[in-house]
Design brief:
The protein has 180 residues and is an all-alpha fold. The chain has a domain of 51 residues. The protein is 69% helix and 0% strand. It has five helices and no strands. It is flat. The C terminus is likely disordered.
Amino acid sequence: MSSNWEQIKDFCARLFRRGRHGVETLSESLDRQARIQRLAGQARALVRERNNLVTTIGKKVYALHNRGKVKNRDVLGDCLRIDQIRAEIEDLKRKIEEIRLAAVEDMPEMDLEDESLLDEEESASEAPAETETFEEEAEEMTQEEAEGPAPEEAPCVEPAPEVDEAESSKGDGAGEPAGL
């Protein structure tokens, strides 16, 4: 029995040595990766700083161009291109505004024969309804979906409005009543 015991003991010792070696190798690898990541982070920070400096230099050179102090042809060409781009942007913005104004002007005005309220009895007794923005309605809907219906509330189901058959034949042919 002692030989079996010795074999088990030797096996456990080898297993422990291999496990310790594996953990040490893993630890070294993790340390190496951490050093690499730290150095890569420092390199990225330096690249960002360099890009910010280049941008700052460009802004200073362009400011000098606006004062007429840039004489280098390469830099002057780039500054002139920036001026052209700025002018093109302003032109495009002006065209966009013209299109928007034309769209408002092209909207036909509706001639209404009857401008009275839809339901005079109801409107006289009720306060005017407040209008909500789309975002407020969406937020309320999201809150209701998250909370679910209250236990004492029954779901609200409105009956379909009755439609005369004469009116429904005046619709757009898709089964919709006229005027909707």
